[in-house]
Amino acid sequence: MRSVRDHQEAIHGLFGPPEAVEVAVTDALGLVTAVDVVTGVSLPGFDNSAMDGYAVLGADLAEASTEHPVTLPMAADIPAGRTDRLTLTPGTVARIMTGAPLPGGADAVVPVEQTASGPVRGRFAPVDQGPQQIRFTAPIPVGKNIRVAGSDIVAGEVAIRAGTELHAPQLGLLAAIGAGTVRVWRRPRVVVLSTGSELVAPGHRLRHGQIYESNSPMLAAAATEAGALARTVHFVPDDVDGFLTRIAEIAGEADLIVTSGGVSAGAFEVVKDALIATGGVEFAKVAMQPGMPQGCGHVTDPSGQAVPIITLPGNPVSSLVSFEVFIRPPLRTKMGLPPHRARVTARLRGSVGSPAGKRQFLRGVLERDGDGWVVDPIGPPSSHHLRYLAGANALIDVATDITALADGVDVEVLVLD
Ligand code: AMP
Ligand code: MG
């Protein structure tokens, strides 16, 4: 039997290096920058006001006090968005709003709350009251309430380093520097194909012996959560020709094909039968539970291009655990994302057995326990128990040589959410 690690390496080898692509900033959420992004503009791009108030020449207010206010005429009105260049004449002030460009010659902004215009204190007078005189009762330090051009970032500097995962704040910065697009590692296109003559689509009545197909939506969701562009195609029955026809249809549009079912030791193992005949895929028994029968390799698309394929076992728990162990890490590496789930050491509540010679991944419910963690194994080990999979938030990773774990021992846990 092949070790988990050896099979992980075989699968890793199917993935080439990350591929850079230019995407719209609005489509870049969760992706990772492939290059440093240098800003072509400074932020702020011009000196502007940090407050709603009056742009002044500080020297004009040097003698202002409550007893001896200084009253100056308002010579201009500068809302945000005004694009002409104004100059403040000494002995006058300009009404200015937050984010509006500071007039030349002004060296401070007095917040409106600290002024009075006529009888109106602490507020702007209504605009229709004609030329206004503004009363100041204190001096103001030079530079006060001014956002200086380039004080955030200067044109030519790196705004976002290569290798940065793009989330709301980073996308905000990219937009602020005027970037419409950004160079990132692209999402691989994953196509999921389930196999099995017993499978039925939702909305249809089940006949005796049939089941609803659940692996393809589950695996596509797992691939999407990992960051890939995943889609499902309609499942195929256990028929080699039908399977190969569907593979030929999807191969041209996939960077990775993931199949489920048809790889174990039964009599109608469609995936195994079909791909052993075409070659390019190796099938192995991997020393793990769940998920022993596995396969990986390449199929060729209609243009003769090799497309990676990973063939997972059909039991729902096996297929999802296999995805976690074998597919999620290289898929994320391909996008420049951190490959691994968080791992914690937790105290086991209850005792469990584990098959000799197999690395076991048990479903568990992980909880905080003071400063540490505690994990409850849930559900029997057999791999059709989707209910317990859906109730788990962690996988307990039991090493190959361990056959029993007693209540209260420390175990290694993969955190799923
Ligand atoms: P297989 O790997 O094809 O031998 O399937 C193993 C078990 O998983 C059988 O009980 C199948 O009915 C079940 N199974 C296989 N594929 C799916 C699927 N796509 N959805 C739900 N159950 C499946
Ligand atoms: Mg099957």
TrEMBL record:
Coiled coil: none annotated. It comes from Gordonia pseudamarae. Belongs to the MoeA family. This is Molybdopterin molybdenumtransferase. Residues 191-333 form the MoaB/Mog domain. It catalyses: adenylyl-molybdopterin + molybdate = Mo-molybdopterin + AMP + H(+). Pathway: Cofactor biosynthesis; molybdopterin biosynthesis. Its cofactor is Mg(2+). Keywords: Magnesium, Metal-binding, Molybdenum, Molybdenum cofactor biosynthesis, Transferase. Its EC number is 2.10.1.1. InterPro entries: MoaB/Mog-like_dom_sf (IPR036425), MoaB/Mog_dom (IPR001453), MoeA-like (IPR038987), MoeA_C_domain_IV (IPR005111), MoeA_C_domain_IV_sf (IPR036688), MoeA_linker/N (IPR005110), MoeA_linker/N_sf (IPR036135). The keyword Signal does not apply. It comes from the Bacteria. Catalyzes the insertion of molybdate into adenylated molybdopterin with the concomitant release of AMP. CDD domains: MoeA (cd00887).
